[in-house]
Amino acid sequence: MRKILLPILLSLFFVTSVNAQKWTDAEFRKANTAANATYLTNEEKNVVMYMNLIRIDGEKFYHTFLEDYINNYNAKVKQYRNYNELRIARNNSYYISLLKHLKGIKNLPVFYPNDKLSALSRSHAQDLNRNNLDTHESSNGDQFSKRLSKYFPNKAMSENIDFGFSNSLDIVCHLLLDCGVPSLGHRFTLIDQKYKLNTVGVSIQPHPSYSWCAVIDFVALPSANAHEE
């Protein structure tokens, strides 16, 4: 989403989601740090934007976009016989704990995209697709920290990988809820304050077993370098 596309994006949100009207134009502009990242697709840019909206106001995100995601997800899985097992219920422990974690999230520093980091994310997502893998480990055995350290040495870093979704809101909300992940590692990376993660790489690629995979890499760079593309 470049500057030309942002008003279109906001208009689409306002037409399709009443919840989006609870966010201001200024908040969307602040969150849309990937607007001019020509190396990202529109959905990849939106991944960055939604992650930033969480950091701008976590509780508001919980009651707006996460609510939209849950309603849409539950509507999709209603066709299946095991709907009661698949749906995200309001008494879901991950849903309940998330509100506790998001209540204190307000005006955190936003993430900025980086072309080199995104190239690393893309390379790993393509590797997962090519070799039908579902791991942080590359097909050659390298851990994500080794892949990233080659270009970002001695930096705090993390990696989130999501499977099954190509839509940006689905990807971000799935990682944020982190259902079935006791450590809540994906969630805590998105709302990180401890490691000062501020730079992201994103890639959404096809996957033979899960249809789609999204790799999101995070690095903490000095503030002077964090906005470099």
From TrEMBL:
<dbReference type="InterPro" id="IPR035940">
    <property type="entry name" value="CAP_sf"/>
</dbReference>
<dbReference type="Pfam" id="PF00188">
    <property type="entry name" value="CAP"/>
</dbReference>
<feature type="signal peptide">
    <location>
        <begin position="1"/>
        <end position="20"/>
    </location>
</feature>
<feature type="domain" description="SCP">
    <location>
        <begin position="83"/>
        <end position="210"/>
    </location>
</feature>
<protein>
    <recommendedName>
        <fullName>SCP domain-containing protein</fullName>
    </recommendedName>
</protein>
<dbReference type="InterPro" id="IPR014044">
    <property type="entry name" value="CAP_dom"/>
</dbReference>
<keyword id="KW-0732">Signal</keyword>
